[in-house]
Amino acid sequence: MNILFVCTGNTCRSPMAQAILQHKTEHNVQSAGLFAGEGMPASEGTSEVLKQEGISSDHKSQPVTEDLIKWADLVLTMTQNHRDMLKQSYPADTGKIFTLKEYADPNYENNWNELKEAYAQLEEAKLTGSEIDPNLLDQINQLEKQVQNVDIIDPFGGNYMTYQKTYEELDNYLELLVKKIDNKDR
Description:
Residues 41-60 are annotated as: Disordered. Pfam families: LMWPc. By secondary structure, the chain is α/β, with parallel strands linked by helices. It folds into two domains: 2-105 and 151-185, 3-Layer(aba) Sandwich (Rossmann fold), CATH 3.40.50.2300; 106-147. 57% of the residues lie in helices and 10% in strands. Strands 2-1-3-4 form a four-stranded parallel sheet, with helices on both faces. The two termini are 13 Å apart. The model has no long low-confidence stretch (mean pLDDT 95).
C-alpha cells in the first residue's frame, strides 16, 4: 500500500509519521507539506526524538503535488484543515483523504454513528414536541468533542518534550493504523 502523510511544512509531524510507519511496516510511505519547500531536513526536534527512539530518518521535505496524491492509496493528514484543503484541491481523490486520527481510530466511526443517532433522537423529540432529555444533550456535547478532536499536536517551535508528546500521539495512532491495514490486507 502507498501511504502519504501530509502536514504544513513537511519538517515535523508528517516526516515523523513517515519514519515511524516505515520502521513498523513494509508499506511504501512518503510525506509532504501543503506549504513545504523542497529539500529541507526534518526539524531538529523531530530528528532528535526519532534518534532517541532508535528510528533512522534521512528526510528531505517536498510539497504536495498531484503526482503524489495519485501515487497514494491513502492520504493521511495531521489536521482537519490539511484534510479539507486537500479535498478541495483534489476533488477526484476525496475518498482516500482522511486525518490520521479519523481513519485509524476504530472509535471515531462508532462515535460519529452515535452522534448521528443522538441528533436523530433530538430532532424526533423536537418534531413531536416531546421533552428533551438533558442526558441526550450531554451525550451530544461529549460526542461532538470526540469527533472534532482529530488534529495531531503541532510541535513546531516547541521543546524536546513537545516533540516527544507528538511522537507518542503519532505512535499510538500509527499502531491502530497498522492493525487496520493489516486486517484489510487479509
